[in-house]
């Protein structure tokens, strides 16, 4: 049975909640408290407490909150459970920031968090930011206030239409969602959420919509055993329906093999290395998996695509067989489906059948990346096929291009400053700045986040990660403000770490609340703000396509150091436009116990030494028709 508690019973409800929270905390968990007899298996609880208990049972103890009238009941439960030491709620100033921080926390540490918002604009802000975990395969819980179920009239901030479940339809376009119209459906809702955020191969956001009137509904005699636990099991290797023999036959005829390493291959580094040797292949990596192969691996041609590298794009352009491992083929990663013009067959390893059959002429192998690659390599070796035992012409050809890429980069590092008329002086280039910061971060075991725009594109071309997890480049959604907001995760993480957010002036001004929230909650990191007073990535694209930039810059000078200094606790630094000064500022930031900001004026202009260049195609603007024609000519 369900019902709403009368107001005079609220004090008793608060006491019973506090009693349960203490019992769970003292016992060390829900199951332990039940086994000890200090927590009854069947309890009278409100829907909101059932949600919190259900998430706690799944290991969700961090709640990133921008509260409002649509979430007051859940907030009250969190208050009581936090007093017992079971959860931690973080009051923030932006739902977008909350979403990015929860995404970064899961991505870097594996720890789960829930984003809690009110109804209406707040929920829509968080929904917009959920594009990042949806695109990058990161599991995040979202708890949104929702319109009441009795339809007494339009609720303030609900979707303004005379239809049921407006927010459910909106959220379902981004991921899986559930409206708790009926309180006793909470177990089903929590199971669907668990299956989504803990999916072993393609996790994503889950939106739990909480009608304002059902949150406080009493569920009498609720059985705590109904709260679900246990993530879905992972897939094994791809089934042998003839695919392995077909893949080996294709490899036997290939002379130039390229392996595209996508986000789904995060945990397959050793297996990829074995396949590279056995198949005499070279690798092209996604920015999402920088470090899955050490940068200096002789078969690593680094990134490829519309913003790739000389070596990565050479491998893509000239390969005759593609082995795709865990790749979604985002337009920039495969030059809008024109990145492999000479490939005649594709071996596609993926857990998603739709993605595994993306290209024509494909041997689709649906299974876990590591397990499937391992079995493919073992099958090759069992047949005595180990073509990579001696260096081939293909490897020598690609190695030459890799040396050319390294020389191309070094040339830019040797010219760290250029004259910029806007600044009226010589300032550091982005390549020199990012190279200095990225090397410093690697040497000091600092986790680096890249924001969208030029900082991101130059960044994934420059970083030289030796292991996975040094840099996080949110290329799925390229969400401006992700990197600076991600620094909040340093305060939430159970095992703290130091973060470096490399951002542009455009991205920073979209999420400056990190200055306040970072200090409030104890973030440990540095914002490296590359200021060229424009959206340089878009301006550069416009110049390349049309010969002129438009509506991508402004004339407003901003003193970002003074802005940061206005927030008590932020360590703000200027540099004198030298690499040495930048290194000194990074060291000073690292010694500060808290949040720092370093302002770096950077070059924008026509000098090719000021950026990392573009080596691929892209179906945007006036490049579209030619790119599309080539795609249909290739027919892959």
Structural descriptors:
636 residues, alpha/beta, Rossmann fold, 3 domains, 6-stranded parallel sheet
Percent in helix: 25-40%
Radius of gyration, whole Å: 26 Å
Sheet having the most strands? 6 strands, parallel
Q: Helix/strand-derived class?
A: alpha/beta
Instruction: Count the E strands.
Output: 23
Strand fraction equals 15-25%
Which term fits the overall shape? globular
3D structure, described in words:
The protein contains 25 helices and 23 strands. It is of the alpha/beta class and 636 residues long. The strands form 5 sheets. It has a 6-stranded parallel sheet, with helices on both faces. A 6-stranded parallel sheet has the order 12-11-10-13-14-15, with helices on both faces. Strands 19-18-20-21-23-22 form a 6-stranded parallel sheet, with helices on both faces. Helix 1 (10-27) crosses helix 2 and helix 12 (310-318) runs antiparallel to helix 15. It is globular, with a radius of gyration of 26 Å. The mean pLDDT is 94.
How would you sum up this structure in a few lines?
The chain has 636 residues and is α/β, with parallel strands linked by helices. 40% of the residues lie in helices and 18% in strands.
Could you outline the blueprint of secondary structure elements for this entry?
Layout: E1 2-4, H1 10-27, H2 30-36, E2 42-46, H3 47-57, E3 62-66, H4 72-83, E4 88-91, H5 95-109, E5 113-117, H6 121-129, H7 131-136, E6 140-146, H8 166-172, E7 176-179, H9 186-197, E8 205-211, E9 217-223, H10 243-253, E10 257-261, H11 269-278, E11 281-285, E12 300-303, H12 310-318, E13 321-325, E14 345-350, H13 353-356, E15 362-366, H14 369-382, H15 393-413, E16 417-420, E17 425-428, H16 430-443, E18 447-450, H17 454-462, E19 471-473, H18 482-486, H19 489-492, E20 499-504, H20 505-510, H21 514-521, E21 525-531, H22 536-546, H23 560-565, E22 571-574, H24 579-591, E23 595-601, H25 624-634
Parallel strand pairs: 3-4, 3-5, 5-6, 6-8, 7-8, 10-11, 10-13, 11-12, 13-14, 14-15, 18-19, 18-20, 20-21, 21-23, 22-23
Antiparallel strand pairs: 1-9, 2-9, 16-17
């Amino acid at each position: 049975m369900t019902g709403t508690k009368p107001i005079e019973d609220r004090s008793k409800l608060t006491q019973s909640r506090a009693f349960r929270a203490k019992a769970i905390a003292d016992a060390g968990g829900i199951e332990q408290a039940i086994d000890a007899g200090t927590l009854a298996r069947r309890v009278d609880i409100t829907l909101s407490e059932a949600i919190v208990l259900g998430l706690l049972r799944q290991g969700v103890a961090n709640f990133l909150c921008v509260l409002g009238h649509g979430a007051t009941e859940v907030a009250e439960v969190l208050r009581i459970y936090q007093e017992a030491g079971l959860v931690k709620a973080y009051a923030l100033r932006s739902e977008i920031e909350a979403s990015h921080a929860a995404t970064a926390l899961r991505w870097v540490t594996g720890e789960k968090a829930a984003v809690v918002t009110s109804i209406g604009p707040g929920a829509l802000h968080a929904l917009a930011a959920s594009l990042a975990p949806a695109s990058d395969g990161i599991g995040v819980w979202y708890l949104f206030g929702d319109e009441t179920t009795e339809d007494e009239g339009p609720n303030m901030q609900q979707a303004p239409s005379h239809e049921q479940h407006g927010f459910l339809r909106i959220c379902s376009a981004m991921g899986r969602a559930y409206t708790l119209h009926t309180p006793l459906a909470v177990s089903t809702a929590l199971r669907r959420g668990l299956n989504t955020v803990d999916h072993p191969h393609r996790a994503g956001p889950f939106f739990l919509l909480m009608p304002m009137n059902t949150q406080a509904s009493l569920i009498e005699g609720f059985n705590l055993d109904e709260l679900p636990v246990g993530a879905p099991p992972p897939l094994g290797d791809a089934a042998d329906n003839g695919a392995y023999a077909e893949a080996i036959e294709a490899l036997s005829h290939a002379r130039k093999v390229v392996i595209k390493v996508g986000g789904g291959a995060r945990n397959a580094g050793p297996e990829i290395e074995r396949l590279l040797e056995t198949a005499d292949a070279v690798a092209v990596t996604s920015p999402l998996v920088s470090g899955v192969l050490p940068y200096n691996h002789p078969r690593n041609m680094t990134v490829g695509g519309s913003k790739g590298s000389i070596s990565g794009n050479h491998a893509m352009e000239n390969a005759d067989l593609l082995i795709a491992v865990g790749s979604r083929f985002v337009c920039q990663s495969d030059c809008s489906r024109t990145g492999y013009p000479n490939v005649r067959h594709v071996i596609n390893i993926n857990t998603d059948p739709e993605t595994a059959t993306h290209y024509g002429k494909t041997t689709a192998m649906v299974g876990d990346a590591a397990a499937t690659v391992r079995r493919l390599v073992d099958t090759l070796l069992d047949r005595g096929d180990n073509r990579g035992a001696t260096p081939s012409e293909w490897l020598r050809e690609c190695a030459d291009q890799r040396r050319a890429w390294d020389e191309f980069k070094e040339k830019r590092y040797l010219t760290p400053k250029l004259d910029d008329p806007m600044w009226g002086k010589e300032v550091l280039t982005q390549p020199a700045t990012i190279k200095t910061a990225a090397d410093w971060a690697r040497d000091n075991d600092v986790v680096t986040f890249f924001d969208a725009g030029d900082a991101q594109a130059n960044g994934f071309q420059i970083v030289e990660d030796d292991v996975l997890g040094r840099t996080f480049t949110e290329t799925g959604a390229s969400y401006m403000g992700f990197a600076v907001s991600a620094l909040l995760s340093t305060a939430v993480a159970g095992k703290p770490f130091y973060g470096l957010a490399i951002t542009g002036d455009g991205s920073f001004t979209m999420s400056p609340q990190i200055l306040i929230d970072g200090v409030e909650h104890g973030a440990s990191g540095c914002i490296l703000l590359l200021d060229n007073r424009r959206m340089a990535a878009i301006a550069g694209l416009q110049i390349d396509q049309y010969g002129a930039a438009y509506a991508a810059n402004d004339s407003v000078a901003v003193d970002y150091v003074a802005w940061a200094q206005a927030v008590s606790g932020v360590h703000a630094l200027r540099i004198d436009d030298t690499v040495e000064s930048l290194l000194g500022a990074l060291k000073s930031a690292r010694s500060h116990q808290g949040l720092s900001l370093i302002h770096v004026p950077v070059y924008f202009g026509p000098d090719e030494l000021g950026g990392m260049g573009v080596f691929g195609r892209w179906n945007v603007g006036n490049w579209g028709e030619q790119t599309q024609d080539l795609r249909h000519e290739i027919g892959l």
